[in-house]
């Protein structure tokens, strides 16, 4: 098969392209390069620069490359920005998806994998130490970003039911790490790179609230290595190939919670810095504990995460030093 990877020059997308290539699948990257980096696209993989709102270019690309499956990762993804610019997020994430699906069904594409998010769950009531977020946990998103991802899932599934398109929605938890330094996350919007940024500025990272009902009082989250996430895409894509008309929904996580304080301590130890965190007031809407159950994808596809938190921090740090050479401690 030939897979069109929208957003394939981005942080997660580049890892999916790499995993597809390693699995012997042919990939074509479609990216507007607003946040993606062309140099991340492997030699020999075609790169089409364009927006998912461009119906004509999409139709031409699908036909020119005889695309038979799509992995759709292209989206705006900053929660805070989505609150300030909801119309922009709905246009890019929902209307862009609608235009893409219209082109996909017209071209006779067989399979469609949608990049969703744990943001669809909002603040689930899973505060107990053994409570996990399952795919049946009610979806009550708390931001326009989360709303667009949930609406996207609805749109993808409805299209599949109406047309026979095989579909899957992958709900990512907290993605970290890198397969190689040059593929590292260049942003500082997630916890690990945010802590790197503070440490390398010789300032203390911040913890927003230390009075949550968790073992150390700080929020607990589930982290997934981007390499494991990319391999989950390959497993899902192959499952759709062998299951015409399937409609799958999977959590992508490790089922293991790590507190913010514990994560900062581990980052300090691995990087060689020693800046204890400072405590700031809670942020509105932060749930105490959000940890995935990944039992469904393990049972149905045989996929499970292989990398631990140390792997994530170490590989992310190597990428940070690659981008900021003066960050390394002597």
Word description of this protein:
This protein has 330 residues and is α/β, with parallel strands linked by helices. Helix content is 39%, strand content 18%. It has two domains: 2-176 and 223-252, 3-Layer(aba) Sandwich (Rossmann fold); 181-221 and 255-327, UDP-galactose 4-epimerase, domain 1 (Alpha-Beta Complex), CATH 3.90.25.10. It has helices spanning 11-22, 55-64, 79-84, 86-107, 144-163, 191-200, 226-241, 260-271, 295-301, 309-323, and strands spanning 2-6, 26-31, 47-49, 69-72, 111-117, 166-172, 174-176, 206-208, 220-225, 247-252, 257-259, 278-280, 289-290. The strands form three sheets. Strands 3-2-1-4-5-6-10 form a seven-stranded parallel sheet, with helices on both faces. The model has no long low-confidence stretch (mean pLDDT 95).
Supply the key terms.
single chain; 330 residues; alpha/beta; Rossmann fold; UDP-galactose 4-epimerase, domain 1; 2 domains; seven-stranded parallel sheet; four-stranded mixed sheet; 39% helix
Spell the H/E element sequence. EHEEHEHHEHEEHEEHEEHEEHH
Overall radius of gyration: 19 Å
CATH architecture verdict of the largest domain: 3-Layer(aba) Sandwich
Q: State the CATH superfamily name of the largest domain.
A: NAD(P)-binding Rossmann-like Domain
**Cα distance, first to last residue?**
48 Å
Beta-strand residue percentage: 15-25%
User: Structural class of the secondary elements?
Assistant: alpha/beta
The helicity comes to 25-40%
